[in-house]
UniProtKB/TrEMBL annotation:
This is ABC transporter ATP-binding protein. Belongs to the ABC transporter superfamily. CDD domains: ABC_NikE_OppD_transporters. The keyword Zinc does not apply. InterPro entries: AAA+_ATPase, ABC_Ni/Peptide_Import, ABC_transporter-like_ATP-bd, ABC_transporter-like_CS, Oligopep_ABC_C, P-loop_NTPase. Residues 12-266 form the ABC transporter domain. It comes from Polaromonas jejuensis. The keyword Transport applies. Pfam families: ABC_tran, oligo_HPY. One of its GO terms (molecular function) is ATP binding. It is a peripheral membrane protein. Keywords: ATP-binding, Cell membrane, Membrane, Nucleotide-binding, Transport.
Length: 351
């Protein structure tokens, strides 16, 4: 443990997670490094199976207990007292004090986290009593304030309702209230709005942004939707087949994506397609939305060399020789592709 006032909130270094299965060893997360600045949002973006959710579960030490896993690397977390702790090396009791208190998580489906047999007020109050030591009445009053904070109408009444009595959007707000109840310094949001319709999704994302502005918390935002990232992240790391293939400040990534996979993800966005059509004077032409061809390779039989090679429009023989390393692609940028000119080594904090 050490003290560092200027440290990133979370500094993940060379994180790898392997699952030992009957069919062989699966490398789900491979040598992943990224950081999250205090008060800022870093997005981990990728398709299903890219390793982004396993990354967050590894950081929280919440991988299924039955899984035979091997984890290596460091996850240096700086708490509100300014102490830097390696989450992967902490004893379990210390990690339990951090979970829900310093670091909170919200998931895509609130019903997996909310207990159906307790009222939402009781569930928030229980967390507050556990981590903040408040008595029952004070904890319930705090729970009501949290429901008001996430803009749930008639909070005093909703406090005594069960999760099944609330709409999907309302349940996600309760989930955020629960996560925010102990004023976390880091919120891990894993696909928090994927199950919601577009209007409610926008409201929830706006709510998260407001809470971040008011509390100064950092956010690790995990999503498959690059379109959402544009408005809600400061930094982005794109994952493919367990590795980070590109990382950059969000504006730079959208202005000039360097990796063919990122370029493909951006091309899939309807807004980006419309922009291209406008530029080409092709408005109104009937076109199919772009899609990246093929599928992610099986982790049990990865291709030799670059993992994206079977789907890449720019692939060449050299891509099949060895997995490309991350290359410096500009200030605070890195990309894992041989098309990026080789220059100085990549500083650890950007990739
Ligand atoms: Fe495509 Fe080759 Fe770059 Fe991989 S290394 S992304 S196959 S060009």
């Amino acid at each position: 443990m050490n003290s560092n006032a200027n440290a990133p909130r979370l500094d993940v270094r060379h994180l790898s997670t392997f699952f030992d299965t009957d069919e062989g060893l699966i490398r789900s997360v491979a040598d992943v490094s990224f950081s999250i600045r205090p008060g800022k949002t870093t997005a981990l973006v990728g398709e299903s199976g890219s390793g982004k959710s396993v990354t967050s579960l590894t950081l929280m030490r919440l991988l299924p207990r039955t899984a035979s896993t091997q984890v290596s690397g460091q996850a240096l977390f700086t708490n509100r007292a300014g102490e830097t702790l390696d989450l992967l090396a902490l004893p379990e009791p210390a990690m339990r004090r951090i979970r829900g208190n310093e670091i909170a998580m919200i998931f895509q489906e609130p019903m997996t986290s909310l207990n159906p047999v307790f009222t939402v007020g009781e569930q928030i109050a229980e967390s507050v009593r556990l981590h903040m030591g408040l008595d029952r009445a004070a904890a319930l009053a705090h729970a009501q304030r949290m429901l008001e904070l996430v803009e749930i109408p008639a909070a005093a009444q909703r406090l005594h309702e069960y999760p099944h009595q609330l709409s999907g959007g309302m349940r996600q707000r309760v989930m955020i209230a629960l996560a925010m109840a102990c004023n976390p310094t880091l919120l891990i949001a894993d696909e928090p709005t994927t199950a919601l319709d577009v209007t409610i999704q926008a409201q929830i994302l706006e709510l998260m942004r407001r809470l971040q502005h008011e509390t100064g918390m950092s956010i690790l935002f995990i999503t498959h939707n690059l379109g959402v990232v544009a408005h809600h992240a400061d930094d982005v790391a794109v994952m493919y087949a367990g590795r980070i293939v590109e990382s950059a400040p969000v504006k730079d990534l959208f202005a000039s994506p360097q990796h063919p996979y990122t370029q493909g993800l951006l091309a899939c966005l309807p807004a980006q397609q419309r922009k291209r059509e406008l530029a080409a004077g092709e408005v109104g032409a009937k076109r199919r939305l772009y899609a990246i061809r093929g599928q992610v390779s099986s982790p049990l039989a990865p291709p030799p060399g670059c993992a994206f090679e079977p789907r890449c429009d720019h692939a060449m023989a050299a891509c099949r020789v060895a997995m490309p390393g991350l290359r410096n692609a500009g200030p605070q940028r890195a990309a894992r592709c041989i098309l990026v000119p080789e220059s100085a080594a990549v500083p650890l904090e950007i990739a």
